[in-house]
Amino acid sequence: MLPSADELQGVLAFLRAAESLKHTTRTSWTSNGQHETVAAHTWRVCLMALVLAPYFPDVDVGRLLRICLVHDLGEAISGDISAVLQVGAPSKSEQERADLEQLTTPLPMISRDEIIALWDEYEQASTPEARLAKGIDKLETILQHNQGMMPPDFDFRFNLQYGARYTADEPLLRAI
Q1: Which of 84, 83, 73 is nearest to 18 (CA)?
Q2: How far apart are CA 26 and CA 16, in angstroms?
């Protein structure tokens, strides 16, 4: 069944708004010295999930990839808040969920509900797929910190504990 003309316009409006992730920067740098974007981070999180998935035979790979795709969508509205800057700040999770609700408003309800449910699943780490996505997300950040041209004053000690809560119990993620 094809979407109605209004639904199609809503999908296009959502996709146009989500495009901002292509230029929304994070506090990491790429290996050629450019600021990393949220879209670039999300792409490599998805790629990592794809190549690591065979080592997790009980994980639904399609669900894992969908979770990875939506995990930072809300950042299209208010941007990324570095984990270092989150200490003592208002709840990033609450802001990001509100932003996600705003971003997905034009979508047909079925798509909007799925995206928000996947994001909630990720945020709560309530399934094996969500816990794996959280661990991969943290590992991608650490990988980028170590691969990118970080500024001279970057405190790499941050990497020592970042994401340990989501990687320590899984031998493969701990090894990475």
Answers
A1: 73
A2: 20
Tell me the whole-structure pTM to 2 decimals.
Answer: 0.93
- Which residue do the tokens 């669900």 mark? 63
Where do runs of H (alpha helix) occur along the chain?
Answer: 5-18, 38-52, 61-70, 75-78, 92-104, 109-124, 128-147, 158-161, 164-167, 171-175
Using CB atoms within 10 Å of the CB of residue 102, give its burial: 0 to 12 exposed, 13 to 18 middle, 19+ buried: middle
Report how far residue 139's alpha carbon sits from residue 162's, in angstroms, rounded to the nearest whole number.
9
Which 8-state DSSP code applies to residue 27?
A: E
Sign of the Cα torsion 81, 86, 89, 92 reads positive
pLDDT at position 5? 96
pLDDT at 47 over 90: yes
Report CA-CA distances (Å) from 1 to 4, 96: 9, 32
